[in-house]
Specification:
alpha/beta, OB fold (Dihydrolipoamide Acetyltransferase, E2P), Ribonucleotide Reductase Protein R1, domain 1, 3 domains, two-stranded antiparallel sheet, 11 helices
Length: 357
């Protein structure tokens, strides 16, 4: 079991493996439904059982990189058949339109999620707030990495700006290309601990991974000079064992990160607004036009950045939209409300036509 322990096997997962479940393996790569995993004996390809595919309500219930599976070996021991996914400790999930079961799991059983951005055009606090909400909601620890710091004329100013924008989040400035600022990352990349790299294409995730591994395992792509965007050189999610024993999952660049069920993460990402909301006159205040709203008062007094507030409201609306689609009762209420609105509009039009006559 020594190899399994190297890949993070512990008592949490062991307690969920039944005597008749077969052997435990951890998924280290997935591409188009093809899986590779690590068992106590080494790597092997894994297929999903028909029952696992049939009973899965959606992509969220299918294996992802980082998952532990209960697997039965083929007679020659060269292939595994996955019977079920063991309960996860955390997930990094990208939401999809529809029910939560349609969320795409980017990585599972992750301790730390590195959000890689650059110190130039990619630094976007509003997009980073979205990342933080997803990570906190999934149960992982977010760490913000400002890559290509050598390209920014005011490193201290950028770090101060990021610190004010994201209180309580560890932030590190580095240059993956030149190998600078990497030492603090060792604190997160301890043996048997799992981390994941998240971010847009062209921010240097593959370069950072190659630096941490000590060799060029991931192919690098060019970055367009016009907009500093990169090509998707990483085409699949894959877990790597680092020389010091840490585990790091690389992911393709994300063009869009739609929220799933990120309510807990929103509360932590926008803790300042959540704190203000406790002083609102109404408990169900939506912070848009209600009287006695402490959030709007702080906005008027300049104590709250308009862009920060706007993004909070935008993400709340996105969450509400998802819940309406998922909850039949909310969906029915919304339908009744809009029928009433349309009925009133038709009545008003009739009145106007009558006045015109």
């Amino acid at each position: 079991m020594e190899l399994l322990a190297t890949y993070g096997w512990n008592s949490h997962f062991a307690q969920h493996l039944g005597a008749d479940d077969g052997i435990p393996v951890r998924v280290i790569s997935e591409q188009r439904g093809l899986y590779r995993a690590v068992s106590a004996s080494g790597e092997l390809p894994v297929e999903l059982s028909g029952r696992l595919r049939f009973e899965a309500a959606g992509p969220r219930e299918l294996p992802a990189v980082g998952d532990w599976l209960a697997v039965r070996l083929s007679t020659d021991g060269r292939m595994g058949l996955a019977a079920r996914v063991l309960p996860r400790t955390s997930v990094i999930a990208r939401g999809a339109a529809g029910r939560p079961s349609q969320e795409q799991i980017l990585a599972a059983n992750v301790d730390t999620a590195f959000v890689v951005t650059t110190a130039d055009r990619d630094f976007n606090p509003r997009r980073l707030e979205r990342y933080l909400s997803v990570i906190w909601s999934g149960g992982a620890r977010p760490v913000l990495l400002l890559n290509k710091i050598d390209l920014h004329p005011d490193r201290a100013g950028l770090m101060a700006q990021a610190g004010l924008a994201f209180p309580g989040v560890d932030i590190h400035a580095l240059s993956a290309l030149h190998g600078r600022g990497l030492d603090p990352l060792r604190e997160y990349l301890k043996p048997a601990r799992t981390s994941v790299l998240l971010g847009s294409s062209g921010v240097g995730k593959s370069t950072l991974l190659n630096r941490l591994i000590g060799q060029d395992l991931q192919r690098l792509g060019d970055v367009r000079a016009s907009d500093q965007r990169g090509r998707h050189t990483t085409s699949s999610r894959q877990m790597f064992l680092l020389p010091n024993g840490g585990l790091l999952i690389d992911t393709p660049g994300l063009r869009e990160l739609r929220l799933g069920d990120a309510a807990p993460g929103l509360s932590r990402t926008f803790a300042d607004i959540e704190s203000l909301s406790a002083r609102c006159r109404f408990r169900d205040c939506r912070h848009t036009d209600e009287p006695g709203c402490a959030v709007l008062e702080a906005l008027r007094e300049g104590l709250l950045a308009r862009s920060h507030y706007d993004n909070y409201i935008k993400l709340l609306k996105e969450q509400e939209y998802q819940r309406r689609r998922e909850d039949p009762a909310m969906k029915a209420n919304a339908k009744r409300r809009w029928k009433s609105v349309h009925k009133d509009l038709r009545f008003i039009k009739k009145l106007k036509r009558g006045e015109e006559r």
